[in-house]
Amino acid sequence: MKIKLALAAFLVLGIAVLGYAYARGYPPFTSQFVQTCEMAIQERLAVPSTYQRIGLDDSRRTITWDEFFAEPERAVSASTRRSMMQAARHPPVQYVALIDYQALDSIGAIIRERASCTFNSLDGSDAPTRTFWVKIDGERNLEWAARQPNAATLHRRLLKNL
Length: 162
Fold this sequence. Notes:
Blueprint (H helix, E strand, L loop, with lengths): L1 H22 L8 H13 L7 E11 L2 H5 L8 H10 L5 E12 L5 E12 L13 E2 L4 H6 L4 H10 L2
Antiparallel strand pairs: 1-2, 2-3, 3-4
């Protein structure tokens, strides 16, 4: 009897902890896509070790083939495009994650930001593991680094992670 009661209490406590974590924006299992987005965000921070996620809203939606091939990195010949479309079992999808986070800036002040992270996937099963493929607020990290005052230093740091 005591074992059943202890097991039931443990189960209720476990569900409560998982529910609380999920409600606070910390899903118990973070997807590969969200992990890659968080790495890309951290690459942009002055003090990456202070990154702390506050909230997360992630989703995916079906996109058209034109949207998929619109990215310069996905530019292929018309024949390759046709063969990819014929071989596909599903239409392409776009992963989207809105990540609220806080971190310290270069002078030690706390910043709170929201980053929009996107990735266009061929079939929904190829979540990126490298930050090069995700866009944070509409641009990849190498594009972002090129606009910064210390572009050369950032560019070298980002190329190490490719």
